[in-house]
């Protein structure tokens, strides 16, 4: 369990390193548990510090597991990273099935979601029409067909169709007719028969290795279940060229539309969900916040009778023993180990190693070795027994926690999971991955609050609240679970919403969400204020917290609390607007840590359950629409005002913001922040 009451997080009592919650300067004394240590170097946020003396060659321990070895002597307070850590082979006790324990039984009734009933007892979370290419030579045709429906207004007549999507690739011709060809066919067949696909058209060239008749026969694509939409198979050479093939494919889609649009969402048991779990653009916080929280959600899905599937074989390396020990059978555990061995042989064949990881971005985020990365990645598997292990894009038939052999490349990994039948996905990221995954909706979970705030238009859930100390792993896990059910029932993810805007050719498709004022052209609110006669340029000073002049501004009206861009000043570290001093015509700036406040006042309060408020009450306070809320004490003042004392400081609290107060699910009231 993480210790969140200190400057660092200690994950296991065996650990000899801890993880910094934020960047801390060298020379400062910091708390670690019940003791204090002096930092010998600056420790970047998410990076590790030594808790004790560690001799050269000695094991470095995090999560209670070995993550590497000291390259040289390391003293307490030293920064622990790639410069003083080396990776060595470590023997693993696979202990097949020794720790296999069933999850606690489900309490109460099983949950449900609004999904599309599909033939064979499956359920879809979306309702797409697919245009699949058998070979790279037919990819353009597939895109032309999809573009035809993207630019048309067919949605007004067929509202229940989520879109027409082209699924293309770069192979299919000069392919090994064995392994590579087999994988490609599994992916195509998996997409064709995916529960989120209401119907499809398959387009080939005609002379490729991946012949459509062979694909259809091997995967029985012409054998329809009762109620299944008949597909259309086309080849460019037999149809008469690109134009004729596009026209034929468009006609085929048009004929499908009425039946596919007639599908309606109905209540479906959660047990019909198959969750794809992936982590990418990881940082050291991934294994502390987002991944363990996803593990909580995964366990709940398993209790509900669903499948929860993760992959990235190269990124469980060094942690696979934690999975084999809870495999339901020795056969399942041994299949996982055999996949690890295949990757070891494969990488050696090309003069590399399976532990050629983390990536540069991972390292910037605090990850040092593949063992550390893998231990954090495995956290998203929760505590459920490992029920099945699949090869890439193999149809997922088992329920419970499953593993699929996929590479660490995020799009390739997610493609395999979705081709296997996963109808909804959760993608955790610490550096900021923006990968979507049609036809399955993909929920993005940020590991830390700064990245979530910076890339908010792409992130669906902020798990950084765990690091901030405002939520537990279990609470965020429950939020992720609830989000999975909502998205499975039709709620749009951030990726979905932006794609809808693109399909409608809206100028706002690429606009940053909630970052600017919607009615201001080109987001230039300074020019808007001047044109409206509400402000005019008047120079003043930009100063730091000590009053030192750093630059000049053209009017405090053109700045906002929390602003980082457009300050026109240089600094060795990012500076943010902390205060707008109208009396002295000054813009005060400082580091991000100084944006935090724990007390403010609100005015024009509106109380919902009572006429007046006469005594302090405990509430959950939300200071922005996307703020998760934080506990606070609300004290009423005269003239319909109140003082808010936050139990945990929050960033970028500015006059003019709306503020809403809750007690559990009850809205107590709200007001406007004044100071």
Structural overview:
The protein has about 675 residues and is an alpha/beta fold. The chain has 5 domains: about 80 residues, Archaeosine Trna-guanine Transglycosylase, Chain: A, domain 4 (Roll); about 140 residues, Ribose 5-phosphate Isomerase B, Chain: A; about 240 residues; about 70 residues, Adenine nucleotide alpha hydrolases-like domains (SH3 type barrels); about 80 residues, Translation factors (Elongation Factor Tu (Ef-tu), domain 3). About 25% of the residues lie in helices and about 25% in strands. A 7-stranded parallel β-sheet has the order 19-20-18-17-21-22-23, sandwiched between helices. Strands 28-31-30-29-32-33 form a 6-stranded antiparallel barrel. It has a 4-stranded antiparallel β-sheet with strand order 1-2-5-8, with no helix packed on it. It is globular and about 80 Å long. The N terminus is likely disordered.
Short description, anyone?
The protein is 24% helix and 25% strand. The chain is α/β, with parallel strands linked by helices.
Strand order of the largest sheet: 19-20-18-17-21-22-23
Low-pLDDT residue intervals, each spanning 5 or more residues: 1-5
* SS-derived structural category: alpha/beta
Shape: globular
Output the number of helix runs. 16
β-strand number: 33
How many separate domains make up the residues? 5
Portion of residues in beta strands equals 25-35%
Helix content: 10-25%
Task: State the end-to-end CA separation.
Answer: 37 Å
Characterize the main sheet: 7 strands, parallel
Radius of gyration equals: 28 Å
- Average pLDDT, rounded to a whole number, is 89
């Amino acid at each position: 369990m993480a210790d969140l009451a200190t400057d660092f997080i200690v994950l296991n009592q065996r650990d000899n390193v801890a993880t910094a919650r934020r960047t801390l300067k060298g020379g400062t004394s910091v708390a670690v548990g019940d003791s204090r240590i002096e930092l010998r170097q600056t420790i970047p946020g998410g990076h590790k510090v030594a808790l004790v003396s560690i001799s050269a060659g000695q094991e470095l321990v995090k999560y209670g597991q070995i993550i590497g070895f000291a390259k040289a002597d390391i003293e307490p307070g030293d920064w622990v990273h790639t410069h003083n850590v080396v990776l060595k082979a470590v023997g693993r006790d696979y202990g097949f099935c020794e720790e296999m324990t069933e999850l606690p039984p489900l309490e109460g009734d099983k949950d449900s979601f609004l999904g599309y009933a599909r033939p064979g007892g499956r359920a879809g979370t979306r309702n797409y029409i697919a245009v699949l290419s058998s070979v790279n030579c037919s990819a353009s045709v597939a895109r032309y067909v999809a573009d035809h429906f993207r630019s048309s207004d067919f949605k007004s007549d067929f509202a229940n169709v989520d879109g027409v999507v082209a699924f293309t690739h770069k192979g299919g011709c000069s392919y090994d007719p064995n392994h590579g060809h087999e994988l490609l066919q599994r992916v195509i067949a998996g997409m064709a028969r995916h529960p989120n696909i209401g119907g499809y058209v398959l387009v080939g060239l005609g002379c490729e290795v991946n012949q459509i008749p062979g694909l259809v026969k091997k995967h029985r694509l012409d054998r329809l279940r009762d109620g299944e939409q008949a597909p259309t198979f086309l080849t460019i050479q037999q149809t008469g060229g690109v134009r004729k093939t596009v026209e034929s494919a468009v006609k085929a889609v048009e004929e499908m539309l009425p039946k596919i649009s007639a599908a309606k969402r109905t209540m479906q048991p959660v047990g019909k969900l198959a969750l794809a779990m992936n982590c990418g653009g990881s940082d050291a916080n991934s294994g502390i916040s987002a991944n363990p929280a996803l593990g909580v959600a995964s366990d709940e899905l398993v209790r509900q009778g669903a499948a929860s599937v993760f992959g990235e074989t190269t990124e469980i390396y060094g942690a696979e023993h934690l999975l084999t020990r809870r495999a339901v059978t020795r056969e399942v555990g041994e299949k996982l180990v055999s996949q690890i061995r295949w990757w070891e042989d494969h990488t050696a064949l090309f003069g590399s190693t399976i532990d050629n990881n983390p990536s540069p971005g991972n390292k910037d985020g605090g990850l040092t070795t593949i063992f550390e990365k893998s231990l954090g990645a495995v956290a998203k598997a929760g505590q459920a027994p490992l029920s099945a292990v699949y090869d890439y894009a193999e149809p997922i038939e088992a329920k419970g926690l499953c593993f699929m052999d996929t590479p660490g490349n995020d799009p390739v990994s997610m493609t395999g999971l979705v081709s296997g039948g996963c109808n909804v996905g959760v993608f955790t990221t610490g550096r900021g991955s923006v990968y979507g995954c049609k036809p399955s909706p993909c929920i993005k979970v940020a590991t830390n609050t700064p990245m979530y705030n910076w890339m908010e238009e792409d992130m669906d859930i902020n798990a950084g609240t765990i690091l901030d100390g405002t939520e537990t792993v279990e609470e965020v896990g429950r939020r992720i679970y609830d989000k999975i059910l909502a998205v499975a029932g039709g709620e749009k993810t951030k990726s979905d919403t932006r794609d809808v805007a693109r399909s409608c050719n809206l100028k706002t498709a690429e606009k940053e969400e909630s970052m600017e004022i919607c009615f201001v052209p080109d987001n230039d609110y300074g020019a808007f204020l001047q044109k409206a006669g509400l402000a005019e340029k008047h120079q003043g000073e930009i100063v730091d917290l000590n009053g030192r002049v750093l630059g000049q501004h053209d009017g405090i009206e053109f700045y906002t609390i929390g602003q980082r861009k457009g300050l026109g000043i240089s600094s060795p570290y990012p500076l943010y607007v902390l205060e707008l001093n109208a009396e002295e015509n000054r813009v005060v700036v400082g580091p991000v840590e100084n944006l935090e406040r724990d007390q403010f006042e609100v005015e024009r309060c509106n109380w919902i359950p009572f006429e007046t408020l006469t005594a302090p009450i405990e509430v959950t306070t939300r200071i922005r629409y996307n703020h998760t809320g934080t506990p606070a004490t609300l004290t009423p003042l005269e003239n319909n005002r109140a003082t808010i004392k936050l139990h945990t400081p929050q960033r970028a609290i500015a006059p003019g913001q709306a503020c809403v107060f809750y007690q559990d699910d009850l809205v107590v009231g709200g007001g406007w922040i004044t100071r």
